Task: structure prediction
Amino acid sequence: MTKKNRSMIQRRLIPTYIFLIICSFISVFPLYWMIAAATQTSLNVARGSIVFGNQLAVNYDHLLKAVQGTLWSSMGNSFLYSIVQTVFTLFVCSIAGYGFELYHDKGKDKLFGVLLLAMMVPAVATMVPLYGLVSKAKLLNSVWAFILPGISTPFMIMMFRQNSRNFPPDIMEAARIDGLSEWKIFFKMYVPVQKSIYAAAAVITFMNAWNAYMWPKVVMSDNRAQTMPMFIANISSGYTVDYGMTMLGVLFCSVPTMVVFFVLQKQFAEGITGSVK
Amino acid sequence: MKKKLLSLMLVGAMAASMVACGGSDTAADTSSDATTEDGAAAADVQSADENTLTVYAWDENFNIPALKAAEKDYQEVNPDFKLEVITQSQSSDVEQAITLAAEAGDYSTLPDIVLFQDHYIQQYVTNYPDAWQDADDADCDWAGLGAEKLSYSTIDGKHYGFPVDAGTAIFAYRTDLLEQAGYTIDDVKGITWDQFDEIGKKVYDATGKYLLCMDGDGNDLFYMMLQEEGVSQFKDGKPYITENETLVKVFDVLVKLAQDNVLYLANDWSDYTDQAIQGDMVAGVFNGNWIIPTMKQVADNSGKWEIVPAPTLTGKPGYASNGGSSLYITGNCTKTDLAKDFLAYTFGGRSAEDGQSITYDEALLNGGVIGTCAAAAESDVYQQGVDFFNGQAIYADIVDYTQNVPTVEQSDYHYACRTQLATALQNVLQNGYDSKQALEEAESNLKFEMGL
Amino acid sequence: MEKKRRGMTLANKQLAAGWLFLTPATILIFIMSFYPIVMAFITSLKTGKGVNIKFADPLTYNYSRMLQDVIFKTSMKNTFLYLIVEVPIMLIFAILLAQLLNNKDLKFKGLFRTCIFLPCATSLVSYSLIFKSMFATQGLINSILMKLGFISENINFLGTASTARFVIIIALIWRWTGYNMVFYLAGLQNIEYSVYEAAKIDGANGWKTFWNITVPLLKPTIVMTAIMSINGTLQLFDESMNLTSGGPANQTITMSHYIYNQAFGQGVGNFGYTSAMSFVVFILVAILAFINLKVGDTRD
Result:
């Protein structure tokens, strides 16, 4: 009986399955194409070939030599910058979100409203003044130049603030009576129960940092400090572009963000769940 | 399992950030040490070594091989010399670097030398005078470097730049496709655009290929076709469009060519190079000679191309130039004498005086860069026949063309004008404007942009 | 006495800690966002380029210039077109997918979710390259349409204004639907299953349940994603820059892209004018976000 029931339900779900399969296919196809293109000659890629070729080794060889041979150092830079960015963003925004929610009073709420405005500041507008700041501070081509503008974002603060709602203030009171300092409460009581939101924030920050292009291009003029997207941009412009090689570069550039998402998928979903309550 | 991974990542992240904090200066240092031999601070694009110059350049298949050739050439007279090339993704990156440094009021972030687009240099020198140093007293024979080319880099009578590539235009035809339509290469020599249109129609009917193509967005055809006639889109610093009879004629020619399926307007640069040219959609290519490496990508077409001067309105052989860039010494360079001597010896043509220049020969061999230096064109490398072009000695031919390119009035708004004219053409072809209306709009928009 | 003083310090300590938690984030936002926008406003009152920049006369020169600027108007039209067409389609699509995936009986949920989310994990440079090649005149889409007999001649998708805009919208939907879906999925998981059970007993059908229960309960999420999408679309830059280069002939250009072009794209930047335009974008985004919040707030 239950078996029959179950198969009936599954049968009723067939249209859903078909629809989802189509959507998944559309989502994944360009990625498949990217992988296939990485094994092709430039000409075949430009002509829209969708099958695998035998140029992988050649493309990799070319890729290694491109942009003064900076493939792996760009990869290293991207990892370094993105991880440092993630660590700082998580720390700064989580204490801010925590502070805004659990110590909130009228003044802080107003300040929060003001900070939200920063979300609307267009990136193009801030580029020149920000460059001036970073350049005067002699930070060009350093990890600081990369991370500073992105550490504190209203969106992240908001996310952490939303999640802090499910942290009961009673626990804080109890902890205070036990003699824990405010910082200890944060680190010992708050952080351990908020792992999933940290994971969600880490995924988003890491992805944004990894894919950032405009700002790094402005402050990382030295090839030795360049990031992966800049490396890709370097190989994908010019009078003649080697598309097979470029696609292989793109593949290298896409893998880390995907891996991060795969690994933290569950925590990511949980974290987001908390922030949209 | 996942918990473990998470904590592992956190630990990794912490460790990485400690490195970042610990390396008090810059974290980029730690990552770059592996690639820098002398361990110089990565934050500085200047080199401490007195025999090393740094240069910003773009395109690893074109300009950068030319720079490497120059480095090798100069090492013959100065063995300790080193040229450190810092690759940029495109010409606009260099422009952006200058702009940002200037707006921040701090030129110390610039390298010694930059490669710079010819059409933009005038306005950058005018607006950011401190970003540059002139090279008027450099030891080279300026007269041998092509007058039209130098007209870009000479500002207030002073030489600022050393030419890298001539932008001399070529008109290449696929002889096999012409044949299918019943023509030979001689039929397209010294023709008018009207005759070209007739031939183009036949070629399209017979082969389905366009006889001309262009990036419809930054349309270069207006400029080249006008230059052939010795006319500019500007007169006395003002737009010269609606009252410019030649321009109106050229405009009408282009409309007709596009309507007759003779001209294919690609949507942007990559569509032009990848689809139109490499995708074998065309039987003719008209652009600066730097387009040759792109054409050569299609090995199947080897031997089928030949180059002749372009059609004109009157039928006389047409010569034009498009694009190209030169090397400039920045205001931040402290090794000015070395920079001037290096540039004068290499791209300035001093090493070519005996008829053989490593710079020019290897730039051509490794990057396909054709220089403007007349003396360099005597070399065997320049005189050789090229298989891809059916054995034609195209390089010598191109240097020959270079001497015939008329000098026309330049403007800071060159590209703005080009975009407006491209828009006008699109308006006629797609939005039902007539050409007068479209050109009037282009002129008023351009004037608006120029603040006139 | 002794006790009271200790209490005071504790309260003070708490107060200090509260503010201390906010300080780094606040300082950074002030330096990295507010200082530049103030600077941009001051610059927006100037004209001239490079060393020749000076205060404009009248001061509002750049703002009145904008009203006559044909390309700026085009860019504004385009941006709003993308906003009006893309954001609703994407969000509805995302809710729909989330609703489908939030089914207890569905198998391979994780696989579907991952697949649909993947596009937003790809880097921007790569995805624009992919779309450009697919929609090229001799690219994949054209050959498929040809083979299926829908068209007799290759369409120059990116070379014609209307189709180029369409490609940009498709690309945006492709990239961001999965991202938004994750938020809705999370929102749906917060809704108690019993609510649906109750609705079922009341005889509500699927559509009614969706409209009367899911949507209202998802409202906070919808408002949040809408603000994020509106903000993102109004500042849209990458797609315009990388997919179509704003072309053909500036007909698909967005506001941010035009601002960028005026600053860095075409010779020496006209920073007075670009700052004025960015300031206008800032105001526009702020107004729309405010309206959105008000509309979303009706429940309270």
Chain A touches chain C through 93 residues (CB under 8 Å). Chain A has a mean pLDDT of 86. Chain A has two domains: 2-37, 56-275.
